[in-house]
């Protein structure tokens, strides 16, 4: 039996989960890794904060140098979140020849290049399975299992908060605000839900997935982003009527050698496996040219699921021979690929418009769509208001650019009150 | 760029898939592994057999010693299937210090101990991702990603043929024979479908999964096995009425330190992720004490999906440093666990009985259930036949032993014509 000392930076939700797993499953971990893992130090901001786990006082420190300068500590587990000071701490650990495990999507997505470079230079391992989709081994999956594939497409439900909200809206008829409120009450959404409901969280995770799947660095700012605030109960109902389910999808596809990257609410066929991913569950649907369709489903957040990924990474380091230099380099190639402007992205669309109920309005709108190369597959007119009626269109595949031109012209019509919603439809998902 | 020579034993469906992937994706494989993989020899039984892939004649051999005695060949890929001579060939390759990749569920499930022992002794790597669920990285998942977990339960749809048949029966109202015929026409089922429809194929795969998840050898003969031949359209309809979907599940659970292992048709709640796994797709649903619920979904068979797993294993060997000795040992611990007799297994049950339509029959049957500790949750009596009517029961959780005693007594009743079907119900699956 070998002994290995590790340090944990941060004792929040995930840090406490890691502590619990290391203690509860110590026997399994020893059997699988050959090591007894000893937590030698835990960095916290406030020593006196009440915590749900019972950690010996002597392990707690507020001074990061206690960790960086301790040569007996071989692995540093960064669970602070945020870019600063997490990034500097990771690099400092790396420069002190410590292997690093992190759950930090923001730091990896935005500062990954610098952190990976440092790890390559020092020959240490850097693992970050927990940074995307919590307990789901998607990074391992792409990085270690699907290596024989040319990956063609990754589509994921990688934000549990928005999936919880959309599930409540679809299954219980709630409106967005009530569903958000319930998510907040249950601890699935923050007091300020911006990062989740406006799609930022999914953008960071998609950048990491795209990097892995296509071996190319992705600037988070190059990812098209649209959140779920504008999804109305009526859109959910129309979707159902057409055989679709609305999910916030993070999508990366290779189109003729360039990448298309986008995070937005999407109507997918209700029989698609992703459509049946409910509540706060996450799932990633991958198309590879050999494996075909593959989906990984599970808990995308939470102390224990995320801790499962963190501790799994620690065990990977121990099994990979902790004394060896890293082979990260070959796993993080920087093949350079262009990112397509969203204007060129092809999609089908659902468009809901409120119009004045006057003769000829449908004709005028349809003509504008046609003039802009947008071909319609379905048109529905319903409603009982005397003055205004909803018009709903589903289009065939068209480019975002053509769609925007058409919408702009339609908005200019006197008989159009409002473009209520535009939601992309992914039939090619199946 | 390094060069590595490999040999393939067998050029059937999977062998041809591997050949295609190595050629089509050679650029990706080189980037990810750092190696150019050269197929130096392919062992076949018949040199003159027509094949869909165009393999240079010089690579083909019918003499295995051309491979075992060639020191320049570092990896042997066994894709012959069956125990003999595949097992001996694998061991011969291992004794000649070659790493081995195999897709052979039968050899690993029944002769794995001897093959692993040889690999440990020679310090070579032995990978077998393709032996269970084709392209789905479930072995990698359990072995490398879920290492931080105490796994509590694995439930899988791991036979595509039966899942295709059950899907056709459920979605298109086919009876078993028509669905089997269609599966055979489409190449999903063999002319002799015994191995698939009677559950043998799933038993082998479950033995491998149980070994990985619980670190213990499992004798395939200790696995309870029941196929899908007796599933009638009427059972599918009743299941739907009760909110269930019938799937052939392979299940392993830990119950108080012992394993419960079984392969049988199972009614699972229709909202369970496994219930939505259709056609020939496979999926494995895993419960770990840290990760919670995790499901891996994808293609369980086919030349390219299975080839994806095989080539992924080759790349794993190259990345693990082909010149190092193996760390297989720590990954195939033989913790010894008992296997519970099926009599002790707890389950809910669906029971369909045809009875004579005489007064008191329901009372007599219900009394027998009660006398044997079988408590009923639902009873349905339908039917329009004058003389015979179907009775359908769903029970609460009960032991297999008690159920068998009850059934035996019920069969003895004069008013009972036939016990038509008994199907286990897994509500705890959610």
Q: What is the highest CATH level, the class of the largest domain in chain A?
A: Alpha Beta
CATH topology of the largest domain in chain A: Dihydrodipicolinate Reductase, domain 2
CATH superfamily of the largest domain in chain A: Dihydrodipicolinate Reductase, domain 2
Structural class of chain A: alpha/beta
The 3D shape of chain A can be described as elongated
Radius of gyration of chain A: 24 Å
Instruction: Name the assembly state.
Output: homodimer
| CATH architectural category of the largest domain in chain A | 2-Layer Sandwich
Tell me the distance between the termini of chain A. Answer: 49 Å
Helix content of chain A: 25-40%
Largest interface: A-B, 63 and 63 residues
Mean pLDDT of chain A: 93
How many helical stretches of chain A?
Answer: 15
The overall number of domains of chain A is 3
Largest sheet of chain A: 12 strands, mixed
The poorly predicted ranges of chain A are none
Describe the structure.
The structure is a homodimer of 430-residue chains. The first copy, chain A, is α/β, with parallel strands linked by helices. The first copy, chain A, folds into 3 domains: 2-134 and 303-330, 3-Layer(aba) Sandwich (Rossmann fold); 138-299, Dihydrodipicolinate Reductase, domain 2 (2-Layer Sandwich); 343-425, 2-Layer Sandwich (Alpha-Beta Plaits), CATH 3.30.70. Chain A has 15 helices and 18 strands. Chain A has helices at residues 13-24, 26-33, 65-68, 86-95, 105-122, 138-145, 160-172, 176-185, 194-197, 200-214, 233-242, 303-319, 328-331, 361-371, 400-411, and strands spanning 2-9, 35-43, 60-61, 73-78, 99-102, 126-127, 151-157, 224-225, 244-255, 258-269, 281-288, 292-299, 338-339, 346-356, 376-381, 388-395, 398-399, 416-425. In chain A, the strands form 2 sheets. In chain A, strands 7, 8, 9, 10, 11, 12, 13, 14, 15, 16, 17 and 18 form a 12-stranded mixed β-sheet that branches. Chain A has a 6-stranded parallel β-sheet with strand order 3-2-1-4-5-6, sandwiched between helices. In chain A, helix 1 (13-24) crosses helix 12, helix 4 (86-95) packs parallel to helix 5 and helix 5 (105-122) packs parallel to helix 10 (200-214). The longest helix of chain A is centred in the first third of the chain and has 18 residues, at 105-122. The radius of gyration of chain A is 24 Å and the shape is elongated. The first copy, chain A, starts with a strand and ends in a 5-residue tail after the last strand. The interface between A and B is large, with 63 and 63 residues.
